[in-house]
Amino acid sequence: MATHHDHSAAGTDDAVMTELLDLDGEVLHAYLSEVTAWGRQLAGDPEPRHLLDVGSGTGTGTFALLERFEKADVTALDMSAPYLHHLRNKAHERGVAHRVHTVQADLDAAWPDLGPVDLVWAASSLHHMADPVRTLTDVRTALRPGGLLVAVELDSFPRFLPDDLGIGRPGLEARCHAALAEEHNARLPHLGADWGSLLTRAGFAVETERVFAVDLTPPLPVSTGRYAQLSLRRVRTGLEGRLSADDLAALDALLDDERPDGLLRRGDLHVRTTRTAWAARHP
Ligand SMILES: C[S@@+](CC[C@H](N)C(=O)[O-])C[C@H]1O[C@@H](n2cnc3c(N)ncnc32)[C@H](O)[C@@H]1O
Question: How many Å lie between the centroid of ligand 1 and the Cα of residue 65?
Answer without folding.
Answer: 16
